[in-house]
Amino acid sequence: MNNLTLIRPDDWHIHLRDGAALGTTVAHAAAQFARAIVMPNLAPPVVTAEQALAYRARILGHVPAGAKFEPLMTLYLTDNTPADEILRAKAAGVAALKLYPAGATTHSESGVTAIEKVYPVLEAMQTHDLPLLVHGEVTDPAIDIFDREAVFIERVLAPLIARFPALRVVFEHITTRAAADFVTAAPATVAATLTAHHLLYNRNALLAGGVRPHYYCLPVLKREADRQALLRAATSGSPKFFLGTDSAPHDRARKETACGCAGSYTAHAAIELYAEAFEQAGALDRLEGFASRFGPDFYRLPRNTDRITLVRQSWDIPERYPLADGALVPLRAGARVDWRIQP
Ligand code: DOR
Ligand code: ZN
Description:
Elements: E1 3-7, E2 11-14, H1 22-32, E3 35-38, H2 49-60, E4 70-76, H3 85-92, E5 96-99, H4 119-128, E6 132-134, H5 148-163, E7 169-171, H6 177-185, E8 190-194, H7 196-200, H8 204-207, H9 224-234, E9 241-243, H10 252-255, H11 270-280, H12 287-299, E10 307-316, E11 321-323, E12 326-328, E13 336-341
Parallel strand pairs: 2-3, 3-4, 4-5, 5-6, 6-7, 7-8, 8-9
Antiparallel strand pairs: 1-10, 10-13, 11-12
The structure holds (4S)-2,6-dioxohexahydropyrimidine-4-carboxylic acid and zinc ion.
């Protein structure tokens, strides 16, 4: 197969950042995706519907002329989110709320310190049918970083789903076989996003033969057996698994340093990287469901009507892209990718 035409995909999990960085991130996202679920972990975070609308306007101000791109906004849950913010969020067209356990990842300092603290908000979300997006890692320092996702399922996610059976939950950027199995067995209210980097790489890419900071993201890359399980889930045809890049730009200096930030940037070549992963699994025919149908179905939004075509054509990924007044190093910098979107 040398050509693949798909309904235009959406990205159900992206970090666009703010200010001048939007010039790069929004152009990349809009070149591929019709819509994207925009993460709220700015500094300070997006915690009110009003802030989400203002952020949305700043994003729209960076959509290149001629492109159509709809940012779908999210709010950042804190211990102090008032339950009535849910009504305002619903009225403002906010798509979902994001749960960051406090301290789990980039800009999660204002996150939730104990899940019970947000039960009243979760109750309101269940009533008003706003999905909960979950960064699924415990922050207990006694738990090994490679086990934090699996322990989160046991300690937080399974009890939460039992307590709020009608709440729609997206287990974001899953990285383990345990998570893929959990989502597969869970009720239809529970889905998961999968990143291109977790489908293509295991922790050897990060650690074997030298530390490669651009492969450091959270949850961290896991074992090959986990990657294989994620690839099976993504290509299974199950509507519970859909595309979410978790593309997360950081300035190069904040990645290539003694204590580097978590985040891999993939928005420059996202659908091409997913195509590589699906091809590896012999399942290119399943890419459209994963990239373009299951996400909107879960979010109860219409599927896109226009299409994109991927052609088998290698191109070299640049070493850098500009990011505000600095630079970012994209995933696969200076190397090849085998697919290209037909202009
Ligand atoms: O690797 C990550 N980067 N994981 C996250 O959860 C956050 C993200 C970011 O914002 O940089
Ligand atoms: Zn993320």
